[in-house]
């Protein structure tokens, strides 16, 4: 059994907590007022909005050493809705990995709308979690938790692919915001 | 009725030609030996691989003035399979638009595997063509041709979104090349 800490109690944090517990794994779910509580999970999911990541890392960097850290953020420019806020040749995940050299950083869940994690479906297709990272064991562990929770998981390659995962999610968000797809739909991954 | 010129007789050129004629629109399909034949279509689809685009534009730029030009390329680095070959803050479509100031340039079909255009499905979901561009009328005309041909079409925003369309397609290709999805599958767009 894995023990997972989720930092952030918003839609995504709750939806991921639900997936984890559904698979028989345990969760502690912390919000911003729980900053004094120590992290006890082996896997830590940063389920906060991108602008809050810097603060979380400042508060928790020491505790994240030795852990698997999962970045789910989409660094959108919410004012213009026309670009990402990270450098074009980088990603939020790469920035986080650079700040956490003692952690194994994964990118996952960022291409999943919260409702598709709750429902287990994108429309009528099974929800697939794309996982990128440089540590194969860490990816396999997270994939196992996702699969146990009733979703599909796919290894999407090295952490460098976070750039494309963030671009894909950005595109998907613009389609949903423009009412071209619903928040229960979007991109389904078809084997 | 629209008349469409397709430059390139590979899998994608043939699949798109099939969609166009299925919808009752007409096609002329040119390969590289047809360079002397004048373009007669109002819409011109550049269905060649990205490395051949520069040559096509050199040969045809004058004839493309006043036309709707559709870029379907994915500028992958086929040696490393680990990046795109266009600048991180740009896109193949942006490069083509810069070289064709007299044309209305659209990005489309680059997120569709050829088999999904032929089959009309991604797995069992209807195939959706994502279309980006700065000219609303041009996008609507292409969307009409796609819809008449039995596929779904979605306006994916301004030509700036070509960057995300190319990143999404790159991710999809890496998943297919890694046998995580099939070439008849990939990303289905679920409303």
Q: Give the name of the CATH superfamily of chain A.
A: NAD(P)-binding Rossmann-like Domain
Task: State the largest interface.
Answer: A-B, 35 and 35 residues
Distance between the termini of chain A: 28 Å
Write down the secondary-structure element order of chain A.
Answer: EHEEHEHEHEEEHEHE
Task: Kindly state the percentage of residues in helix of chain A.
Answer: 25-40%
Which structural class fits the helix and strand makeup of chain A? Answer: alpha/beta
Strand content of chain A: 15-25%
Overall morphology of chain A: globular
| Count of discrete structural domains of chain A | 1
**Mean pLDDT of chain A, rounded to whole units?**
97
CATH class descriptor name of chain A? Alpha Beta
State the CATH architecture of chain A.
3-Layer(aba) Sandwich
Oligomer: homodimer
* Total strands of chain A: 10
Rg of chain A, please? Answer: 15 Å
Could you list the spans of chain A in which at least 5 consecutive residues all have pLDDT below 50?
none
How is the main sheet of chain A built?
7 strands, mixed
